[in-house]
Amino acid sequence: MNGGPTFVGLQRWLQRLRVMTAKELLQLSRDTPLMVFFVFAFSFNVVMGGGRSGFELKNAVMHVLDHDKSNASRELIGRFKPPYYILHGVEGRPEEAMRMLDRGDVMVTMDIPSGFEKSLLRGEPAAVHMQVDTTNSSLGLLAASYAQQIIGEYGSEAALAGLGMDRQALEHLPLIREEQRAWFNPNQNNAWFFSISELMMMTTLLTILLSSAAMAREKERGTIEQLLVSPLTPMQIMLPKVLAMTLVVLIGSMVSVFGVLGPVFHLPIKGSLPLFFALTALYGFTSSGLGLFIATVTRNLSQAGLLGIFLFVPIILFSGIHTPHEGMPRWLHIIVLFNPLAHYIDATYSILLRGAGLDLIWDSVLAMALLGGTLFGFGVRRFRRQFE
Fold first, then answer.
1. What would the 3-class secondary structure string for the chain be?
2. How far apart are CA 195 and CA 44, in angstroms?
3. Is residue 179 part of a domain?
4. Could you tell me the CATH number of the domain that includes residue 94?
5. Are residues 379 and 245 in the same domain?
6. Do 166 and 237 have their domain in common?
7. Which of 7-21, 63-77, 354-368 has the lowest mean pLDDT?
């Protein structure tokens, strides 16, 4: 006898949830500018993010002042080849090279002094002077590092030649040899990393902004009072917004995975796609909970948008996308634990590139579930207290 009313109440509750979720999806579909941005974020933006330059040096313009004009100097110059370096010229004076460096026409200048080959033949040290434009510190450091490796290898070969030895003779000498093996991304294709990172950043941005904007719009238009006088509870008002935005972002993630990551960047998905999409839905719920919490502490759509962007920046910076957690100060590691994107990143890379299962990422899943439930609970509580 007690099961009948309970079942009817549950059925009515689920029906209201379904109707309110459909209402949120319909309202979102009528917002043309937002839908255009949504399509752009999960398609063209992921393409551009995955196609940006990575952590490799490419096409660094180099000018050489060859004062020796010998076989040794020409051989050294010939080792600076594309795609890492582009040779600008081998003539001129030091003053002209400095002007090119100041104007930004070249990134690297190398000065080979006269007597370079004679010093090598006599077994004496030979110096090569280089100047690197480090306006862009990352590219400048790469240019200097690559050049150091090239010159160091050439110097080693010249020293061996002076001793009457070659590289094959080194096989019989006691040497420490470093052997590296690249796992999960053996070709070190930066597009795989950047495209997944861009997808996760867009997922974060849209779940926070869409959920906060949905609630803030209700406040601006005065429809929140109409919802409150209806038979709906605060949970039935806020949960459909979270479900709708999570569903939209989940669809966007599917578009990115099947329309961009696979066809454009040929990403080898080694793990379970259902597990990845379930994880994305959980992360969407977590981020949407944060968006609803933002909406409860703001009064209008503009404030919600500004506060959402304000929180989005530290979420990205402390997530590990741009800076590894190991490179951060220790006191920041505590903040990282409360960043849902940090847990989502670890789990996503583990699934897509490493083929990990739930047994390896359960701690990240648990952390996201706890953070999402806490944020959503705070949002519902504040919403209820505002309109009591």
1. CCHHHHHHHHHHHHHHHHHHHHHHHHHHHCCHHHHHHHHHHHCHHHHHHHHCCCCCCCCEEEEEEECCCCHHHHHHHHCCCCCCEEEEECCCCHHHHHHHHHHCCCCEEEEECCCHHHHHHCCCCCCCEEEECCCCHHHHHHHHHHHHHHHHHHHHHHHHHHCCCCHHHHHHCCCCCCCCCCCCCCCCCHHHHHHHHHHHHHHHHHHHHHHHHHHHHHHHHCHHHHHHCCCCCHHHHHHHHHHHHHHHHHHHHHHHHHHHHCCCCCCCCCCCHHHHHHHHHHHHHHHHHHHHHHHHCCCCHHHHHHHHHHHHHHHHHCCCCCCCHHHCCHHHHHHHHCCHHHHHHHHHHHHHCCCCCHHHHHHHHHHHHHHHHHHHHHHHHHHHHHCC
2. 11
3. no
4. 3.40.1710.10
5. yes
6. no
7. 7-21
- Looking at the fold, whether 251 and 362 belong to one and the same domain comes out as yes
Residue 3 lies in a domain: no
Domain that holds residue 101: 60-172
Shared-domain flag, residues 225 and 294: yes
If one counts the domains in the chain, the total is: 2
For residues 47 and 113, state if they share a domain: no
Whether residue 227 is predicted with pLDDT greater than 80 in this model: the reply is: no
Question: Which amino acid, 327?
Answer: G
Give domain status of residue 181, yes or no. Answer: no
Which strand ranges, in their side-by-side order, compose the sheet holding 129-132? 85-89, 60-66, 108-112, 129-132
- What radius of gyration do the chain's Cα atoms show? 29
Instruction: Report the DSSP beta bridge partners of residue 29.
Output: none
One domain for residues 303 and 155: no
> Per residue in 268-304, pLDDT tens?
889 999 999 999 999 988 888 888 888 888 888 888 8
Distance, C-alpha 27 to centroid of its chain:
31
**How far, rounded to the nearest angstrom, does the alpha carbon of residue 109 sit from its chain's CA centroid?**
33
Q: 74 and 215 in one domain?
A: no
Q: Do residues 253 and 337 both lie within one domain?
A: yes
